[in-house]
Amino acid sequence: MQVKGNCRVDKPSLKRYRKRVRQLASQFASFKLEHIYSQDNSDARSLARAGFHTIFVDPIYQALWEILYWCHDPESAKNYVLDQRCDDYHKTKYILDTIECCLPESFAAIQKLCTNISRRISRRSLRLENNRARASLLGIY
């Protein structure tokens, strides 16, 4: 129901999944979703459970897990982002995107950190309207 747009999606992480499903679905000539209750589909439940347990093998999910682990509170999020910022612009942007999506309180602390950095660098406030700008700022700081 959420993918079809018949139900609201509240969790930011589920919004990302819904967006990805819609992107993938648009690549097919036709696409059909049918809801099956979990008690009627033990095979799917077993596959989902197996997929969940192999999540740490996939490097993308391992990176996501690491971000969620180290950024669970605002102070540790600021330290983690500052420690990682020089590795790679795209990595920094991915970290910021993940924190924004999954950890709103920590992201608010990162926004405040970036605002404070921009004030220290220049009297005129830099435009930090998106994570691309924040990643660039953190990379040069």
Helix content range: 55-70%
Beta fraction of the residues? under 5%
- The chain-level structural class is mainly alpha
Number of helices: 7
Mean pLDDT: 79
> Per the principal axes of the C-alpha atoms, what is the gross shape?
elongated
Secondary-structure element pattern, one letter each: HHHHHHH
Q: Give Rg in angstroms.
A: 19 Å
The strand count comes to: 0
The count of domains is: 2
Describe the biggest sheet? none
Description:
- The protein is mostly helical and 141 residues long.
- The protein has two domains: 42 residues, no CATH class; 82 residues, no CATH class.
- Helices cover 65% and strands 0% of the residues.
- It contains seven helices and no strands.
- Helix 4 packs across helix 6, helix 5 crosses helix 6 and helix 5 packs across helix 7.
- The N and C termini lie far apart (45 Å).
- The mean pLDDT is 79.
What distinguishing features does this structure have?
mainly alpha
Topology summary:
Layout: H1 12-25, H2 42-53, H3 59-70, H4 74-84, H5 89-102, H6 104-121, H7 131-140
Helix pairs in contact: 4-6, 5-6, 5-7
Quick gist of this model?
The protein has helices at residues 12-25, 42-53, 59-70, 74-84, 89-102, 104-121, 131-140. With 141 residues, it is an all-alpha fold.
